[in-house]
């Protein structure tokens, strides 16, 4: 299980990475592992504006369909359209080719409030039982 | 040379064995003048249609072989949690096949269909009596459609009170996926309520979510973890106090027949799955039926037509639309054949018999829970209702799916897997009342054997099933690459 440590995490298992003035968002390795083989990813429209905690899409696997939630508020600037044809990228490479959306954050301080890799790791250990 | 394998347990498709001109039936020569179809009704792609042309014997062998390749409640124990795969008594079929019923036409005159209407009327009343509701509509075709019915009724109720601020429906995180799907289809927004560590609704979280924007709550009791929501009265009160209404998902009604009446607890509207609780076919054998019962404040909104009594020249029974009905949900009178079967089942059992069904369903589940606990730990260590949740992934490198697939080799249908979502790697086991002690014990032995193999020879599980007509199916490509019809 990888807990990449240059990204931030939230409790609903999304990661967020600052990339200049944008924030890239995906689901964690832990999340893709519990979901199992991802078969479909539903993403928002570019230009949508959403608040932190809003659902922005759905990741569907053979086991379950899970909503994914905004780690920070802002406008959707880009979506990973490649996932339409290659949803398995979420499993194979959750932190790279499996990214979901890029957000232009309206309140950059929201990012620093998220969990560090270590905090998130401890949090997931608490979920095991 | 034939290209077909005659030793294969899966027969070739009828399309593949089709030969031009082969027939199962020879129709007599027409002795009436031909009346051509109007042009606009004639298919232009008639050549493309190419229906299979086969002999009667080809058809019989095809379907008989397919039935041998199948697992069904008539052949194997089927502990599919949340689905209540109980035995479907054969007398149900005899009743449904009775020419007086089977020969009816849904557009038959009311005066000519009094018998059928009487059955519907009595079934409405029996379901109302069993559940504590004031009225029942038999229209919906399944549980999920019953849910949509109920939420549309709640919506119509608020709208008729001019109360349009309410946009949210509360749904516990243990709910079946059809609950949030229903909320969305009805134009509402789902607010998920977390479960507590005992596997039931977190009452404080529920209370905090109640407010004047809440249209209602959808609750399953017993819930999908097979646990009775002990706070149900406080839960219902909290929702009512904020002006919301309560929808009961009746999929688990098999646990409480003759013991608890949801209407008495304050549930405002609920569906019944006749194809679960009331023994009509389920799982490929359907169609289903999902009647909806309502408390007095929602009864006027029930979909129709419903059957009522009272003097017209056509007879005692007639079809009426409730006052403020949300309309029709289904063509004609719902799935009438299923209504007949459920009616037969209820009449056959009577009030005491229904109670005994639930008592035995709960007893069987608890017996099996204790028998299997050593092989696969049970998630919530407490007395369960009609089903329980085990964790399937306790042995290194072996997944819940591997366990489920290996059980097939032992001649058992697999339990429900990976549901409810609140339990990681769930195996959801529901034996139902119709299984005897020997079967339950044999199933527990099989689970123990699978647990032993998981430790001694995990590859046996990874490659399972070994003995079924088809080996492990590729679920990922099946979903990613949907093929829904025969392609030449
Ligand atoms: C708890 C629960 N609710 C609703 C449903 C939906 O019922 P149906 O399959 O009849 O549409 C099911 C079906 O399994 C269920 O288990």
Q: How does the SSE layout of this entry go?
A:
The complex is a heterodimer of chains A (129) and B (488).
Chain A: E1 8-9, E2 14-19, E3 22-27, H1 29-35, E4 38-42, E5 49-50, E6 55-61, E7 65-69, E8 74-79, H2 89-92, E9 101-105, H3 109-112, H4 117-127
Antiparallel strand pairs in A: 1-2, 2-3, 3-9, 4-6, 5-8, 6-7, 8-9
Chain B: H1 14-17, H2 46-49, H3 56-69, H4 90-97, H5 99-102, H6 114-131, E1 135-137, H7 143-160, E2 168-172, H8 178-185, E3 189-193, H9 203-209, E4 214-220, H10 232-241, E5 245-250, H11 262-265, E6 269-272, E7 292-294, E8 306-312, E9 315-320, H12 336-372, E10 388-391, H13 400-409, E11 416-417, E12 426-429, H14 437-456, H15 458-462, H16 475-480
Parallel strand pairs in B: 2-3, 2-4, 4-5, 5-6
Antiparallel strand pairs in B: 1-7, 6-7, 8-9, 10-12, 11-12
Please give a handful of descriptors for the protein shown.
heterodimer; A: 129 residues; alpha+beta; OB fold (Dihydrolipoamide Acetyltransferase, E2P); 6-stranded antiparallel beta sheet; 3-stranded antiparallel beta sheet; 4 helices; 9 strands; B: 488 residues; alpha/beta; Aspartate Aminotransferase, domain 2; Aspartate Aminotransferase, domain 1; 3 domains; 7-stranded mixed beta sheet; 12 strands; 36% helix; binds pyridoxal-5'-phosphate
Number of strands of chain B: 12
**N-to-C terminal Cα separation of chain B, in Å?**
21 Å
CATH architecture of chain A: Beta Barrel
- For the residues shown, what is the average pLDDT of chain A? 94
Strand order of the largest sheet of chain B: 1-7-6-5-4-2-3
Overall, the morphology of chain A is: globular
Give the helices and strands of chain B as they follow along the chain: HHHHHHEHEHEHEHEHEEEEHEHEEHHH
Count up the helices of chain B: 16
Examine the coordinates and then state which fold CATH places here, giving the name of the CATH topology of chain A: OB fold (Dihydrolipoamide Acetyltransferase, E2P)
Number of helices of chain A: 4
Approximate helicity band of chain A: 10-25%
Low-confidence runs of chain B: none
Helicity range of chain B: 25-40%
What is the CATH architecture term of the largest domain in chain B? Answer: 3-Layer(aba) Sandwich
How many structural domains are formed by the residues of chain A?
1
Based on secondary structure, the structural category of chain A is alpha+beta
Shape of chain B: globular
What summary fits the major beta sheet of chain A?
Answer: 6 strands, antiparallel
Question: What is the straight-line distance between the termini of chain A?
Answer: 17 Å
| The number of domains of chain B | 3
């Amino acid at each position: 299980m990888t807990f990449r440590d240059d990204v931030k995490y939230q409790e609903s298992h999304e990661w967020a990475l600052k990339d200049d003035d944008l924030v890239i968002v995906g689901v964690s390795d832990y999340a893709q592992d519990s979901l199992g083989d991802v078969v479909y990813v539903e993403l928002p429209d570019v230009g949508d504006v959403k608040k932190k905690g809003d659902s922005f899409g759905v990741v569907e696997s053979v086991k379950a369909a899970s909503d994914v939630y905004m780690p920070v508020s802002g406008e959707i600037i880009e979506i990973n359209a490649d996932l339409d044809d290659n949803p398995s990228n979420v499993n194979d490479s959750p932190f790279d080719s499996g990214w979901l959306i890029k957000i232009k954050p309206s309140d950059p301080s929201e990012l620093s409030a998220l969990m560090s890799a270590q905090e998130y790791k401890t949090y997931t250990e608490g979920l095991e039982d | 040379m034939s290209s077909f394998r005659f030793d294969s347990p899966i027969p070739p498709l009828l399309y593949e064995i089709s030969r031009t001109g082969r027939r199962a039936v020879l129709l007599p020569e027409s002795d009436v003048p031909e009346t051509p179809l109007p042009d606009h009704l004639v298919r232009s792609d008639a050549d493309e249609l190419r229906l299979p042309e086969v002999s009667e014997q080809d058809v019989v062998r095809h379907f008989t072989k397919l039935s041998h390749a199948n697992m069904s409640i008539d052949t194997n124990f089927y502990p599919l949690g949340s689905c209540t795969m109980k035995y479907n008594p054969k007398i149900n079929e005899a009743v449904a096949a009775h020419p007086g019923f089977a020969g009816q036409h849904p557009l038959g005159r009311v005066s000519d269909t009094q018998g059928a209407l009487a059955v519907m009327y009595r079934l409405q009343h029996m379901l109302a009596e069993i559940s504590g509701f004031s009225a029942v509509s038999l229209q919906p075709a399944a549980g999920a459609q019953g849910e949509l019915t109920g939420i549309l009724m709640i919506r119509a109720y608020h709208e008729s009170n001019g109360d349009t601020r309410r946009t949210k429906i509360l749904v516990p995180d243990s709910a079946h996926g059809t609950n949030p799907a229903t909320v969305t289809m009805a134009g509402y927004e789902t607010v998920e309520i977390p479960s507590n560590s005992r596997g039931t609704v977190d009452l404080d979280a529920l209370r905090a979510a109640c407010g004047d924007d809440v249209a209602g709550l959808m609750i399953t009791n017993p819930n999908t973890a097979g646990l009775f929501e002990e706070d149900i009265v406080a839960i219902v009160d909290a929702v009512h106090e904020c002006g919301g209404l309560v929808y009961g998902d009746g999929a688990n009604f098999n646990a409480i027949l003759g013991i608890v009446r949801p209407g008495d607890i304050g549930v405002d509207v609920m569906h019944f799955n006749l194809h679960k609780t009331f023994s009509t076919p389920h799982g490929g054998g359907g169609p289903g039926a999902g009647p909806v019962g309502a408390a007095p404040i929602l009864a006027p909104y029930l979909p129709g037509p419903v059957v009522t009594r009272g003097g017209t020249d056509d007879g005692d029974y007639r079809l009426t639309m409730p006052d403020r009905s949300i309309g029709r949900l289904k063509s004609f009178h719902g799935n009438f054949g299923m209504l007949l079967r459920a009616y037969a089942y209820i009449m056959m059992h009577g009030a005491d018999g229904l109670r005994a069904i639930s008592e035995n369903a709960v007893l069987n589940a608890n017996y099996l829970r204790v028998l299997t606990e050593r092989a696969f730990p049970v998630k919530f260590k407490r007395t369960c209702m009609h089903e329980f949740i085990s964790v399937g992934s306790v042995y290194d490198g072996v997944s819940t799916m591997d366990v489920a697939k290996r059980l097939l080799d032992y001649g058992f249908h697999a339990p429900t897997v990976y549901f409810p979502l609140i339990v990681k790697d769930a195996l959801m086991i529901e034996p139902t009342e119709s299984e005897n002690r020997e079967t339950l014990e044999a199933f527990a032995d099989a689970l123990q054997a699978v647990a032993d193999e998981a430790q001694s020879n995990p590859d046996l599980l990874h490659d399972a099933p070994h003995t079924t007509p088809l080996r492990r199916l590729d679920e990922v490509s099946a979903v990613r690459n949907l093929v829904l019809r025969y392609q030449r």
